[in-house]
Amino acid sequence: MDQFVLNLIFVGVTFAIYIGIAFWSRAASTSEFYAAGQGVHPVLNGMATGADWMSAASFISMAGIIALAPTGGYTQSAFLMGWTGGYVLLALLLAPYLRKFGKFTVPEFIGERFYSNGARVLAVICLIVISITYVIGQMRGVGVTFSRFLEVSTDVGLYIGAAIVFIYAVFGGMKGITYTQVAQYVVLIIAYTVPALFISLNLTGTVIPQLGFIGGYAPSGGDISLLTKLNEVVTELGFTAYTADTPNRLNMFLFTLSLMIGTAGLPHVIIRFFTVPKVADARSSAGWALVFIALLYTVAPAVGSMARLNLTTTMWPAAITSTATSGPALSLEDIQTKPELSWIRTWEATGLLDMEDKNGDGRIQYYNDKAPADSPIMQMAQERGWKGNELVKIDNDIMVLANPEIAGLPGWVIALVAAGALAAALSTAAGLLLAISSAISHDLIKGSIKPDITEKGELTAARISMTFAIILATWLGLNPPGFAAQVVALAFGLAAATIFPALMMGIFWKRINKQGAIAGMLIGLLFTAIYIFVYKGWFFIPGTNNLPDTAANYVFGISPLSIGAVGALVNFVVAYLVSSATAAPPQHVQELVESIRVPKGAGAATHH
Questions:
Q1: What pLDDT is stored for residue 602 in this prediction?
Q2: In 171, 329, 357, 437, which residue has its Cα 20 to 30 A from 533's Cα atom?
Q3: Which residues make beta-bridge pairs with 216?
Q4: Same domain, 366 and 490
């Protein structure tokens, strides 16, 4: 069967399932729209949280960044450590206490804990900035996936994805999104692991990718390990060793910390713990979420390394059994005529992959043309008349999607990956849009502008605000400030610098008052956002950055992706100093904090 038809079948069937679930479980009240009636089983909530969490950044982009990182794959392991470590913080320090509070949203907690409508409004602003930044990465992932597998432009793919999200998120609310995300988790985890099983078996003789990652390289008889072979191949071509140590330990530490505390401060993740029946279920949900997330995250390093090796041996066929440059590079004739290389032509059509025969020899030389002039690869390039790296563009975000094609796997596996990638992007996009919608309708309109709004009016406002959020996210997704995982990392930095400190101090320090919380969040937001905008462009508008986004321009080598940890520290310090210099919170607020710390008595739940 034609690959395009297979793609349509797999994607179409899964979309029909999502929309069907959304209509079956559509929200009829604000409680169902915001918190699914607080009756979701913790195992199902853990699965839905996993889908909500494992976004386009996890499914599409993370392994691609690990595979193609100029500094090697080890440095990018911070994504794995930070994102999973954050769930431990969330399970231990936040989830049960926020569920005990018993409300729908993060701004609602902040508003009541800090007895201030201003604090609530500021939390809404922080939430919207974080969620919009995060959703840009998801929309980019949707566009990239559709552009390849439905053979349309990236922009058209983005519009199609936005329409699908609109159908099941606007009508279903949290109730519809939760059960849709359960189905999406099943699709995405199968789609991620099945190709990894095949590829691991081909490259290492071991069907389990986690073991293949540390196993032997099968084409050479298993005499050397997979990672040793990969290091040999990439260093021969002038690239940094795949397992090379990080050149900036401070930046890596701050980046990991930023991802960890950013995870624990992400509004769309936190609101998932308002959907379970009891306080104990909130902690249980976080534990189950870690289990479901680990199924993908322990496979990702293997996927990244195997994708890089498969790409390199495709460009230099001799590298499979010998050194890369002992044989000729991939020829243009093979690209045009061999069916197993048709993936190159189809990805070139998307604009995310580009090759150029600069020296006119009919072959595509892939190497690091920025290596030192006296390096072996540059001397060889001069001797052989190479004019520079001829694999002129390969987008990080295509590596996981193209991996099955590069490895020559069956068409149904390729179609499965397409369905999984879309499930990952759409599930997180829906959660983020719900967080934005609830912040506007529940916290801003009902909480501040029109407290006497009816439940029906609030539900309508929620759906209208979500519609506008989808339109804005789609527009921003047309010109994203980076790869999907990079854009998501920026959102984590903003969450780390604003929401996380306010929640932590609000739960564990009775003395923090509204003045301290507001000052901390505001300074944390401004400090982090300005640092990011200086390098990434103001409000992510291309060409408006003040400094080039390169390591040489970073303050103390701290990248915009890592600044969230510093912003969190600034938030903590400012909140402490301001709170210490102003009046203590009222007695009833201090008693509220005491009651939150005892994880009992969350009240009855609505089962469905």
A1: 47
A2: 437
A3: 225
A4: no
Alpha carbon distance 256, 451 (integer Å) = 41
pLDDT bracket for residue 253 (50, 70, 90): very high
| DSSP code for 225 | B
Structural domain of residue 329, as residue ranges? 317-400
Spatial contact of 461 and 124, defined as CB atoms under 8 Å apart: no
What's the alpha-carbon Rg for the chain, to the nearest Å?
25
**SS3 for 52?**
helix
Q: Phi and psi for 29 in degrees, rounded to 5?
A: -145, 165
Residue 437, number of CB atoms within 10 A of its CB: 27
Please indicate, yes or no, whether residues 342 and 202 belong to a single structural domain of this protein.
Answer: no
Q: Indicate if 365 and 242 belong to the same structural domain.
A: no
Residue 428 tokens, joined: 């997180």
Tens-digit pLDDT profile for residues 445-473? 887 788 888 878 888 888 888 888 888 88
Does the residue 437 lie in any domain? yes
Whether residue 161 is found in the same domain as residue 79: yes
Query: Which residue matches tokens 């998307």?
Result: 350
Predicted confidence (pLDDT) per residue in 206-224, tens digit: 999 999 999 999 988 878 9
Do residues 421 and 530 share a domain?
yes
Average pLDDT over residues 259-286: 80
Task: Confirm whether 126 is domain-assigned.
Answer: yes
For the beta carbon of residue 129, count every other beta carbon within 10 angstroms.
Answer: 18
- pLDDT (0 to 100) of residue 30: 63
So what's the pLDDT on residue 608?
A: 43
Grouping H, G, I as helix, E, B as strand and the rest as coil, residue 317 is helix
pLDDT at 330 over 90: yes
The residue to which tokens 């000729």 are assigned? 328
In this prediction the pTM is: 0.80
Both 115 and 175 in one domain: the answer is yes
- CA–CA gap between residue 13 and residue 574 (Å, rounded): 52
294 and 333 fall within a common domain: no
Domain end (from 400, 426, 446): 400
Residue 600 banded pLDDT, cuts 50, 70, 90: low
Report the CATH number that the domain containing residue 499 is assigned in CATH.
Answer: 1.20.1730.10
Pick from 365, 400, 435: which residue ends a domain? 400
Give dist(CA 55, CA 227) in Å, integer: 27
Position 438 in a domain: yes
Residues 176 and 251 in one domain: yes
Tokens of 1: 């069967």
| DSSP-assigned states of every residue in 373-406 | TTSHHHHHHHHHT--S-S--EE-GGGHHHHHHHH
Hey, CA dihedral for 379, 381, 382, 384, is it positive or negative?
Answer: positive
CA distances to 132, 170, 208, 225, 472 from 22, rounded to whole Å, are: 23, 9, 35, 47, 23
* 108 assigned to some structural domain: yes
Q: What angle do CA 507, 512, 514 make, to 5 degrees?
A: 105
Handedness of CA 73, 74, 76, 77 (dihedral sign): positive
Burial of 72-83, coded b for 16+ CB within 10 Å and e otherwise, reads bbbbbbbbbbbb
How far does the chain reach from its first CA to its final CA, in angstroms?
42
With left for phi above 0 and alpha for psi between -120 and 50, is residue 351 left, alpha or beta? left
pLDDT 10s digits, 544-585? 889 998 888 999 999 998 999 999 999 999 999 999 999 999
- Among candidates 508, 499, 512, which has minimal Cα distance to 594? 508
Reference 319, options 189, 311, 40; nearest CA is 311
